[in-house]
Design a protein that fits this description.
The protein is an alpha+beta fold and about 425 residues long. It folds into two domains: about 190 residues, no CATH class; about 180 residues, no CATH class. The strands form two sheets. It has a six-stranded mixed barrel with strand order 2-3-10-5-7-6. Strands 8-9 form a two-stranded antiparallel sheet. Helix 3 packs across helix 12 and helix 12 packs antiparallel against helix 13. It is elongated and about 100 Å long. The two termini are about 40 Å apart.
């Protein structure tokens, strides 16, 4: 028993050495054999890296906009059909009275902010940006992590409440309008009205080619003066702790139903969202598409496996005398099986490694030349190589079994 295991291992190592030597002796044929695997793994790694990059980018964009520690109340809930939208199309607008109701009746809420957004024109001297996002906020905006000032400061609650003409600008607005000039305390024009810059937000980057830094933030009352008082409002609510977010949502729901005098059987005439709501909607919309895409690409691995099986059958036929001689000299069935399976697995893994490198390079190139992000995770690389090893093992079983079953006498007679 003690010597059996080492001898078996030694035999397997010897078989592996013979298999690798045989692969090395036919380099061109070996490469052509695994070409299908190379193409398949390249495609899989590329697709998975791009999907992972897109998912991470979407998550970051949603968290930048919605925040992980807050939820929002809007006029309409998420609807997925015309019938659902028809049922909510007459929902009343969000008003400051709704925000006050949440502040008054929701005990687990620490901050309530009213916000409005529109695309507008901002400029400085002879420079102008026509599609900047203009956000109007109430004084509680300083309590939310989605607002920051890398240079200067945030607008103070007093400045917002007293409707001072002050503005917090995004990184891109500061860069495009001011360049190397310090923008702090300069006067920025929004729709021709002058606002004093008090702060510049840190750079957030872009999402699918769309900048997340092309915005300005002004007091809500100033926003309503510029664009009218009937613009769509959103309430953003921050609970006292992130663990209380569901409790805070329940309390806010009750507060709004009371304020809007809804009867017990009436459905909510507003929508309530967290960052997880938007992420879940995104994953629900794309997970099926991504799964089908990866599945279709993975089918090429089957083609690659069939090619490996056919080549290995040809190898068995070519090396019949060699196999017969080894069996005549004492090689067991398991030794022949190990040799053939090792050759098949090594071939397949070799293709997987090359395909992984090519796939990673292709994904990085796409990410560098286009707005589509890519993210290559270690687990996806390991999974790709493991799958190719399994393909080599599975499709090498029949050729290996056929080689192991050869009669040594008949094999030695073969020319």
């Amino acid at each position: 028993m003690a010597t059996g295991a080492p001898s078996t291992v030694a035999a397997l190592v010897e078989s592996a050495g013979i298999a690798i030597h045989a692969i090395w002796g036919s380099k061109l044929r070996s490469f052509m054999t695994v070409l299908g695997n190379i193409v398949a793994v390249t495609s899989i790694i590329s697709v998975v890296a791009l999907i992972q990059g897109l998912n991470a980018s979407v998550k970051d964009a949603i968290l930048n906009q919605a925040g992980a520690d807050s939820f929002s109340v809007q006029q309409f809930p998420i609807t997925t059909s015309d019938e659902e939208f028809d049922a909510v199309r007459y929902n009343p607008r969000i008003t400051s009275a709704d925000a006050r109701a949440i502040e008054r009746y929701a005990d687990t809420v620490s901050a309530v902010m009213l916000q409005a957004t529109i695309s507008g024109t901002v400029g400085y001297r002879d420079k102008q940006i026509d599609n900047a996002t203009v956000q109007g906020v109430s004084s509680a905006f300083t309590e939310f992590s989605t607002f920051d000032a890398e240079r200067g400061r945030l607008m103070s609650p007093v400045e917002v409440e007293r409707s001072r003409p002050v503005v917090l600008v995004g990184w891109e607005v500061a860069d495009r309008l001011f360049g190397t000039i310090d923008p702090l305390e300069k006067e920025l024009q929004i729709e021709g009205v002058r606002f004093r810059i008090v702060g510049v937000s840190k750079k957030r980057g872009s999402f699918l080619g769309q900048s997340q830094d092309n915005f300005v933030v002004i007091p809500l009352s100033q926003f309503q003066i510029l664009y009218g008082g009937r613009r769509q409002l959103t309430i953003t609510v921050k609970p006292r702790t992130i663990e209380q977010i569901q409790t805070a949502m329940d309390e806010a729901t009750v507060a709004l139903r009371v304020a809007r005098r809804l009867r017990p059987r009436d459905t909510n005439n507003f929508g309530m969202f967290t960052s997880d709501t938007f992420l879940e909607l995104y994953y629900r919309a794309t997970s099926g598409i991504f799964a089908v895409l990866v599945g279709v690409v993975a089918l090429s691995l089957v083609v690659g496996g069939i090619v490996i099986m056919n080549i290995m059958l040809m190898v068995v036929s070519e090396r019949t005398r060699e196999i017969g001689l080894r069996k005549a000299l004492g090689a067991r069935r398991v030794d022949i099986m190990a040799q053939m399976l090792t050759e098949s697995v090594v071939l397949s893994v070799f293709g997987g490694i090359i395909g992984t490198l090519l796939g990673a390079g292709f994904a990085a190139t796409v990410s560098a030349l286009t707005p589509v992000p890519a993210s290559i995770e270690l687990w996806s690389v390991a999974l790709g190589i493991f799958i190719t090893a399994f393909v080599g093992l599975f499709f090498g079983l029949y050729p290996a079994a056929r080689a192991a079953s050869l009669d040594p006498i008949e094999a030695l007679r073969k020319e």
